[in-house]
Amino acid sequence: MAQTIAVEARNAVKEFGSGASAVRALDDVSISIREGEFFTLLGPSGCGKTTLLRLIAGFEMPSAGKILLNGQDITYLPPNRRPVNTVFQSYALFPHLTVAQNIGFGLEMQGRPASEVKATAARMLALVKMEAFANRKIGQLSGGQQQRVALARALAPAPKVLLLDEPLSALDLKLRKEMQIELKRLQLETGITFVFVTHDQEEALTMSDRVGVMSAGKLHQVGSPKDIYTRPVNRFVASFIGETNFLPASKVPGGVQLGCGAVVEVAGLTGTGTTTLTVRPEQVRLATQGEAGAIPATVRNLVYFGTDTHCYLSLSDGAEVIARLQSPSNGDVGLETGQTVALRLVQGAAQVLAD
Amino acid sequence: MADRNFNATRLPGFTPIALIVFALLYLPIVLLVAYSFSGGYSVSLFEGLTLEWYRKAWENEAVQSATLRSLTIALSASVIATFCATLAALGTTRRKAFRGQTFIYVMINQPLMVPEIVTAVALLIFFASIKVATGYQGLGYLIAAHSAFCIPFAYLPIRARLEGMDLSLETAAADLYATPWQTFRRVTLPLLGPGIIAGAMLAFVISLDDVVITEFVKSGGQDTLPTYMMGQLRRVMTPEVNAISSVLLALTVLLLTAFFLLTRKND
Ligand SMILES: Nc1ncnc2c1ncn2[C@@H]1O[C@H](COP(=O)(O)OP(=O)(O)OP(=O)(O)O)[C@@H](O)[C@H]1O
Ligand SMILES: [Mg+2]
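That is the input. Now the predicted structure with magnesium ion docked in place:
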């Protein structure tokens, strides 16, 4: 399926300050965001997510590199001339205007006729289910309601791309879950390309078509949630998204050998030397003693989590492994601390990391 | 358990001292207002209740022209000062910190620091040479002088208002297709409104009350209300001065009350 690219950053670099005190907020980031997709930028605090959004919105100019919108270079276009809108983390709603006036602001600035501004504002109010609040001032709204108005205001001019900078981080958990669903619905209904920023990996996995994982100004991996979860390209991505096990290993023909001597099959591996094997806790299973490929281990601790039980194990060389075992109907996985068991890694689930 | 925080109101003698200070501050003013209703000629002896002095002041042509002049100067100066102060506040807050910022703050606020008498003498000499050169004797000198010393008073509330304003509102306006001018016109200015009005009112009151600089800068026959009253002190004092003072006081209190209402945090 041919995909048109909505926004693109080409070798974008952004430095703040100069000389010895310069901060490199973005370090040679290239990214292509497809039209109509829900794209999430995920990364720890300070990794440059907001900076990348600000370059796309036009609030900052890159120190080097380009920003393209539908193939056109917009690197130096001021924000008011970009068909891109932002939902700010602080909402940044105009306190001196009513809800309806806030929503109509963008259209009005574009010089649309008053009747169209009014009609669109009414449509947007309905879209975010805030019809009853049209004439309220912003100060009279709750956080969740302000969030909806901010969304409606940014969507009203029908931008090519909607940028959302951690729009849900100020909401409590319940409202947050509600708004996640709401956002997804709005994106599907409007068909607008969403670029969503979060540092919550669960939010990124559940909402996105594709995710870009960043740290320290660098973009590490772009892929579908399944891709980045099951095929992380490096240690940072593997550990930032979900829980995982890291096991030191050395390459042998057909796979890797763990410190305890066990050999794990890994397809397509070449060369020799030491490496790291990673496997998700839910891909570690109990095996019957003597089964081919079974790895002996000792149970160190068991933690019951309801649907599953986390089993902390150590291998004969002291390496630690966490296994997430599905709890049986009586809740008891039938293990005891100190017991010796055999482990098995689900076929194809173990990954060798590049670094 | 004993209250461990230092609490000034618990010090011995706090209440009596506070009462004495308040009395010293306000008793003379209360007396001044009271005697403006006195029927006699003395400003220190109360003789019957009357509005006679208010009527006398109202009909006094010298008072009339001084009042008109005071209002003209205060109105012109507060408009000019507020305009300059608004630009200065925008220029000093709506940008990243820059080299020499503190110097500019000091420059804007220097009329608050320089002794008024020094400014007055300097203006007297400066304007005298202009008067000689141009022959112009009008109110322009007073308006210019008042505008200058009113700027810092107008600047402070406007700057405070700007600093309390979320910068992201202007970013949001730009994001929503507003040009820089539209952003200013539709977002910054309306939100700045209360600060500007407060600044203008403060400037107005300060200009209305000024004696020292006015006394030095004015040409012959350019008395404002305060300098007229000062001139009266040198002659026979009647409760007419009390009546004028009371009206001036009422006006100032009114404006300052409005100022505080406008600059209140949660408006
Ligand atoms: N205006 C600025 N001046 C100087 N440094 C800046 C500026 N803006 C951002 N930075 C720095 O650039 C880096 C990236 O910042 P950015 O705001 O993009 O992070 P972020 O990923 O959005 O983080 P968070 O999740 O905390 O919002 C940080 O180290 C930050 O300190
Ligand atoms: Mg951020």
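Chain A touches chain B through 24 residues (CB under 8 Å).
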